[in-house]
Write the structure tokens for this entry.
Amino acid sequence: MAHQSCDELRERFHLTPKSQAALDAGSVGPWERGGISPFQMKAGRELAAAQGRPYEAHGASLAD
């Protein structure tokens, strides 16, 4: 699937943009501050450690 564009994949998997109501309520994307939960961050760090590699959040960060 790597050769397909994001738009093609969004259509294929029926991924719709966030609603205006969600945006107005402060919903952020995965690469914005607060876009990853503490649980997700911990799970990623644990998996990386188990695989013997450094953890890379690719720009995602917890909320302040």
